Amino acid sequence: MKLLLASRNKKKLGELRRILLAEGLEGIEVVGLDDVPEFPEAPETEPTFEGNALAKARDAFNATGLPSVADDSGIAVDALNGMPGVLSARWSGGHGDDLANTELLLGQLRDVPDERRGGAFVCAAAFVSADEEVVVRGEWRGAITREPRGGNGFGYDPVFRPEGHDATSAELSPEEKDALSHRGRALRRLLPHLRASAQA
Ligand SMILES: O=P(O)(O)OP(=O)(O)OP(=O)(O)OC[C@H]1O[C@@H](n2cnc3c(O)ncnc32)[C@H](O)[C@@H]1O
Ligand SMILES: [Mg+2]
């Protein structure tokens, strides 16, 4: 079975691929959007991560006919009542400007004391095939730092210090991040569905 990972974010796509390949999925060939004919990106208008993930996976399945996985993710900061949330990718206005997004977030939290800087990375992962639609969630608790640190990962990783760690998630190795991350947790919850689909 070909499985389409429907993300237009190269670094996110790399993580999705890495997490699934580490599981050694038998009978599944993982492909990306570069491997299929182009189709337009639908705007992400849903109020929840789950709604957006499902919409992206449905779009990909409808456009290609391939069983598809999509991820909608972001960072939910307690002191901002859960924002940036589903707006994480375009928090500073433009889409996907990681540096501007993290700088804006740090500025907003400048006067927030250490004990109230908690938040979580959230990932909803959706799988859509001819036979089923499923969406699952993974969360990773931590705190927002006062300055960026580390060069791994992407997005808000340099300003997120996972619970139980002194390092930011941009200072963790890729394997460490996958073992703990919202994305790792969500994708591992999808595995039974992917395996069943490959065997059907
Ligand atoms: O929608 P696709 O095409 O998959 O790509 P995207 O980058 O637009 O992805 P989202 O709409 O799900 O937005 C997620 C944003 O949340 C942030 N984010 C998500 N997962 C992250 C992670 O593991 N580390 C750091 N930041 C993350 C990052 O800034 C992303 O741009
Ligand atoms: Mg997006």
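^ magnesium ion complex. The helical segments are 10-22, 49-64, 98-108, 174-180, 182-199. The chain is about 30% helix and 20% strand.
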